[in-house]
Amino acid sequence: MNALYQQKLVVNGQLAESTGVQHKVEQDIAFLRHRIELMKKQKIPNNIVITTYENMLKSRLSVLAWLQDGNNEIPMP
Questions:
Q1: Residue 8: helix, strand or coil by DSSP?
Q2: Which residues contact 35 (CB under 8 A, 6 or more apart)?
Q3: Within its chain, how far is the Cα of 4 from the centroid?
């Protein structure tokens, strides 16, 4: 990414680099995928919790896609 152009987001009322937020979202995605996998392997899986985690995962994946789209370098004319 161009050093002159660094996307910033407001997080908890503070400006933050989008790459830091993206890293946190990626960590959340890895955690959720791992938990879903473990929960599905239980003798009696809790489908309500699994569905909740799957919905959370979908949300995080959407946020990640949005962040990645915004992190693409803008071509200069």
A1: strand
A2: 53
A3: 25
Q: Are 9 and 72 in contact (CB under 8 A)?
A: no
Q: Tell me which DSSP letter residue 6 carries.
A: -
Q: Is the dihedral of CA 30, 33, 36, 39 positive or negative?
A: negative
pLDDT tens string for the chain (77 positions)? 444 445 666 666 555 666 778 899 999 999 999 999 999 999 999 999 999 999 999 999 998 988 887 655 544 44
Q: Cα separation of 3 and 54, whole Å?
A: 36
Count of CB atoms situated within 10 Å of the CB of 72: 9
